[in-house]
């Protein structure tokens, strides 16, 4: 079978998406370990970690989408808004999968990232519970230094994570001192 025409990928739109950098009082961000591939949203051994992110519903306010995605993926609701990035994009890697897959119609993701300060307790975070009929995406979570996260994600997301780290570096300061 011939390889897919690269021009066809370019003709596809980016999927509107929000990403969340949830900072704790020590200035670290929450990351979750993905436990399964989902079409072009692949994981690679040793690179299973990422910050919460997800699609935006038609007409949905972006800050509300960020809070919804944070809750769906982690259970966390105790968070204050700190700031946001401009739009950032990444392209999905090529994948042999069904054309009917929910992400097959997109070339990648167009994301607006939100910095939030976690104001709750760690026991509020529960990535294993299904919420809003969405299956769990993470099997565990941890706090990590923002400047280290790009080295823990799949390669096609790294430049976006580096841009987020640069733009949100001011929020990665400890609030406990």
From TrEMBL:
Signal peptide: none annotated. Pfam families: NUDIX. One of its GO terms (molecular function) is guanosine-3',5'-bis(diphosphate) 3'-diphosphatase activity. The lineage of its organism: Bacteria, Pseudomonadati, Pseudomonadota, Alphaproteobacteria, Hyphomicrobiales. Keywords: Hydrolase. Belongs to the Nudix hydrolase family. Its cofactor is Mn(2+); Mg(2+). PROSITE patterns: NUDIX, NUDIX_BOX. This is Putative (Di)nucleoside polyphosphate hydrolase. Residues 13-166 form the Nudix hydrolase domain. It comes from the Bacteria. The keyword Hydrolase applies. The keyword ATP-binding does not apply. One of its GO terms (biological process) is nucleoside phosphate metabolic process.
